[in-house]
């Protein structure tokens, strides 16, 4: 913890917060195990199976404390649901709750999960997406879950690395957007052909087809992908939703591997239109998309992670300012600091020092194996080749025990506004070099401090407890929807104070294979009051809360009209 | 060349290209080819990554060439070479983030090398090759080299290879290109066989844009190749051998600078090219 709280602007020497590894003390002992695939894929298995460590945040038992769900990716290895006891410790209740035994032959293995109250019964349900069949678990009583996948019409084999809950038609029922990576006809444990890889390193279009499932009520979903036009086959790794263009309808932003990002603008809940928005000019390896109001402009900007390997490849992360209103596009303003976070995966905007400006946390590292061997040279051979070579796994050099961008240290970028970003991970205490995949942020202690939770591939999960400078103020909103979906997913909150504005969206999945605390949290710096908070509910209702109390969690109930 | 009646449309097109190329100044053909590569790379595959990069690299090359030639020779020389260097650097240089200095530094290094690193009034290194290799060796934390491929359609490859081969023929350097390509394929096939590795990844690099820039603009640079046709082919083979040796060392995980692993062809040319040119100039002087 910082010894001497100060209102001085944060800088590298004094970031205004400290992170402490509290994993063991909290009782979190989760270790991810990755998939073992068809032997025909053995030469590239370290690459193909290198995903699946995920973390999502939800208050599944409704006790007011945020709980954590980690996924595993090997047959027989259980997922873990850590119930927050409220005293800084957690207990794994996944087995008792019925959401542990999810990784089974014939159904596939977990790649991640997203929580949302799809039946509006006041309890958070969970969708587990897999390399395999989707699995939807209904929260029965806050302690037990039942598998309702079949009944919901969601038993579909999708090799998915991401999903988000989104009420795209604003009917008060959460719909589901599922991203797909490998084609749906690929069973990674029984491959019929080894021609399963991407057909381009920059412009691949032969991935699985993303799917939009509309919640029709009664616990059932229908596939509306075709009629809504969101069936991208660009090897999507992550999606996030928000109303980017301010028309009141949630849009979808995709981070695509081996290709350009995509923005689907929502046309009044009937269909989506692929908007150029300046995204098509840079084709990279999008891994994750995080949304935040980077410079407190009252708009949601996007940060998309990519691959950088010094000397070999600088695809560079994108920090895209939302300029849809004036220029009809996003503008990439990533400087060299935030652009290069190694082989970057999950990322989140979060105000760790409560100074009113979002930091950016990025986890990274792909394959940490033999540190004396690197696959980058082999990768450089295949990467520039014609697609007929690299879409066949047989053409790939064998990985063996080589590392590929392994042992990278996580990044934590301090937001200094116009002065730029500076990496303060070491100073702040985020010192791991695990192969990070998913990162989520949550106020696990209900104390106005956003903690950082990281899911690492083949490695232990981490909980970094945050100790912000106590001189800064904060405010958090617990949103209780009545007309909108009960999870309030898609709700956007703007706080206005001292001539400043900050916007946040309640996410139904954000980053890579992750979902954050759904209580919007704002750091306020020295401001001891805010003039008002404006809440844009998915139902279309705009609610203004004047002079809400700071330094506490405010419960806001959606008005009837 | 006349096109025989009944010839296929493709040979007809190539024939027309050859007829047309025969009437055009060879120097303009090379500039035209690099422009074609640039246009395809940018408008179809967005490879440039920002027009400010192009403006800086091109501007730096041309201004440096104009100033240095005026200072050294008392007149401003034809800027076509600087134009080719500027475009090649733009395509090949992939910097960390949005930094732009590599395009300025690269442009200056490329052109300045022609005026500084000389032997008997001839420069020894292909300017672009020298600049990009220097950047990769000196600043691997800030600069990487082009790793894109031509999307996923064969047509682009055919267009670039078609125009490239015809123009290389017209400029009378086709034998260098073909010798290198043949040597690359043979040597890397042998290496794959000897090391028990699959063949496809070893020959895959030749299908990418970086190699097309390499074989059409670097190893065939008329100012830095040796004079004798037979020796030109031998040097191309030696470059391929050096590249294969670097690749072998990379296969063996020997501790090489990253540039050797990331761009073995560029490093091989940077090592072999100037030695060959030096020997050639020395032989010419003593003959």
What does this structure look like?
The complex is a heterodimer of chains A (561) and B (287). Chain A has 561 residues and is mainly beta. Chain A contains ten helices and 41 strands. In chain A, strands 5-4-3-2-37 form a five-stranded mixed beta sheet. In chain A, strands 6, 7, 8, 9 and 10 form a five-stranded antiparallel beta sheet that branches. In chain A, strand 2 and strand 3 form a beta hairpin. The termini of chain A are far apart. Mean pLDDT of chain A is 95; it is low at 1-8. With 287 residues, chain B is mainly α. In chain B, 71% of the residues lie in helices and 3% in strands. Chain B has a two-stranded antiparallel sheet with strand order 1-4. A two-stranded antiparallel ribbon of chain B has the order 2-3. In chain B, helix 3 (51-73) runs parallel beside helix 5 (101-116). Chain B is globular, with a radius of gyration of 19 Å. Mean pLDDT of chain B is 89; it is low at 1-10. The chains are: A mainly beta (561), B mainly alpha (287). Chains A and B meet through strand 21, strand 22, helix 7, strand 27 and helix 8 of A and helix 9, helix 10 and helix 12 of B.
Question: What is the end-to-end distance of chain B?
Answer: 38 Å
- Give the percentage of residues in beta strands of chain B: under 5%
| Order of neighbouring strands in the sheet with most strands of chain A | 5-4-3-2-37
Distance between the termini of chain A: 44 Å
Percent in helix of chain A: under 10%
């Amino acid at each position: 913890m910082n010894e001497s709280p100060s209102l001085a602007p944060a800088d590298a020497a004094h970031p205004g917060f400290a992170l402490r590894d509290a994993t063991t003390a909290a009782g979190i002992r989760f270790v991810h195990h990755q998939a073992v695939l068809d032997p025909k894929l053995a030469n590239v298995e370290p690459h193909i199976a290198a995903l699946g460590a995920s973390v999502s945040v939800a208050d599944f038992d409704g006790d007011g404390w945020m709980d954590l769900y980690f996924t595993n990716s090997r047959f027989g290895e259980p997922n873990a649901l850590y119930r927050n006891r409220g005293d800084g410790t957690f207990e794994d209740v996944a087995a008792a709750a019925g959401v542990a035994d999810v990784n089974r032959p014939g159904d596939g293995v977990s790649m991640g999960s997203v929580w949302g109250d799809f039946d509006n019964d006041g309890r958070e349900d969970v969708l587990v997406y897999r390399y395999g069949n989707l699995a939807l678990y209904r929260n029965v009583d806050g302690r037990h879950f039942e598998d309702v996948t079949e009944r919901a019409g969601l038993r579909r084999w999708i090799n998915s690395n991401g999903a988000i809950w989104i009420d795209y038609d604003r009917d008060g029922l959460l719909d589901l957007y599922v991203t797909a990576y490998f084609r749906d006809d690929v069973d990674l444990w029984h491959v019929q052909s080894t021609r399963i890889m991407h057909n381009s390193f920059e412009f691949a279009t032969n991935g699985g087809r993303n799917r939009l499932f509309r919640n029709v009520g009664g616990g059932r979903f229908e596939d509306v992908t075709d009629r809504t036009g969101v069936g991208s086959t660009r090897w999507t790794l992550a999606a996030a939703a928000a109303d980017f263009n301010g028309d009141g309808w949630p849009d979808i932003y995709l981070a695509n591997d081996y290709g350009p990002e995509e923005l689907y603008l929502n046309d009044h809940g009937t269909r989506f239109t692929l908007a150029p928005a300046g995204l098509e000019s840079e084709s990279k390896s999008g891994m994750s998309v995080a949304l935040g109001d980077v410079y407190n402009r009252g708009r949601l900007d996007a940060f998309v992670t990519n691959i950088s390997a010094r000397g070999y490849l600088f695809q560079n992360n994108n920090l895209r300012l939302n300029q849809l209103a004036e220029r009809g596009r996003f503008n990439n303003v990533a400087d060299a600091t935030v652009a290069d976070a190694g082989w970057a995966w999950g990322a989140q905007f979060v105000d760790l020092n409560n100074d009113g400006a979002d930091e950016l946390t990025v986890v990274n590292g792909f394959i940490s194996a033999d540190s004396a061997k690197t696959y980058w040279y082999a990768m450089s051979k295949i990467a520039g080749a014609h697609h007929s070579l690299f879409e066949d796994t047989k053409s790939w050099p064998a990985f063996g025990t080589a590392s590929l961008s392994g042992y990278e240290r996580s990044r934590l970028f301090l937001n200094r506004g116009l002065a730029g970003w500076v990496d303060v991970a070491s100073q702040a205490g985020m010192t791991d070099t695990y192969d990070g995949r998913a990162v989520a942020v949550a106020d696990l202690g209900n104390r106005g401090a956003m903690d950082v939770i990281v899911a690492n591939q083949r490695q232990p999960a981490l909980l970094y407890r945050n100790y912000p400078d106590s001189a800064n103020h904060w405010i958090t909103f617990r949103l209780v929807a009545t007309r909108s979906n009960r999870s309030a997913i898609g709700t956007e909150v703007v706080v206005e104070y001292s001539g400043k504005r900050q916007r946040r969206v309640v996410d139904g999945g954000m980053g890579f294979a992750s979902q954050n605390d759904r209580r919007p949290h704002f750091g306020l710096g020295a401001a001891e009051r805010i003039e008002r908070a404006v809440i844009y509910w998915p139902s279309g209702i705009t609610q203004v809360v004047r002079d809400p109390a700071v330094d506490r969690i405010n419960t806001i109930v959606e008005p009837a009209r | 060349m006349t096109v025989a009646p009944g010839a296929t449309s493709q040979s007809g097109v190539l024939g027309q290209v050859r007829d047309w190329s025969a009437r055009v100044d060879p120097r303009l053909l090379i500039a035209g080819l690099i422009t074609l590569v640039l246009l395809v790379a940018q408008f179809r595959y967005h490879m440039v990554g920002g027009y400010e990069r192009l403006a800086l690299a091109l501007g730096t090359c041309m201004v440096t060439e104009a100033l240095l030639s005026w200072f050294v020779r008392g007149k401003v020389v034809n800027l076509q070479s600087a134009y080719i260097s500027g475009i090649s650097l733009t395509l090949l240089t992939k910097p960390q983030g949005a930094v732009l200095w590599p395009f300025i530094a690269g442009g200056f290094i490329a052109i300045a090398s022609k005026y500084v690193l000389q032997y008997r009034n001839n420069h020894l290194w292909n300017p672009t090759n020298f600049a990009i290799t220097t950047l990769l060796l000196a600043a691997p934390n800030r600069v990487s080299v082009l790793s894109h491929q031509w999307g996923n359609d064969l047509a682009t490859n055919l267009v670039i290879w078609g125009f490239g081969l015809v123009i290389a023929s017209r400029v009378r350097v086709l034998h260098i290109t073909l010798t290198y390509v043949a040597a690359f394929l043979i040597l890397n096939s042998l290496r794959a066989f000897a090391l028990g590795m699959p063949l496809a990844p070893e020959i895959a690099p030749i299908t990418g844009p970086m190699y097309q820039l390499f074989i059409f603009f670097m190893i065939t640079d008329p100012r830095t190749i040796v004079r004798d046709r037979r020796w030109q082919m031998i040097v191309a083979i030696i470059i391929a051998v050096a590249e294969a040796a670097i690749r072998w060392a990379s296969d063996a995980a020997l501790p090489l600078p990253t540039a050797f692993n990331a761009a073995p062809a560029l490093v091989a040319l940077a090592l072999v090219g100037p030695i060959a040119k030096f020997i050639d100039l020395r032989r010419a002087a003593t003959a």
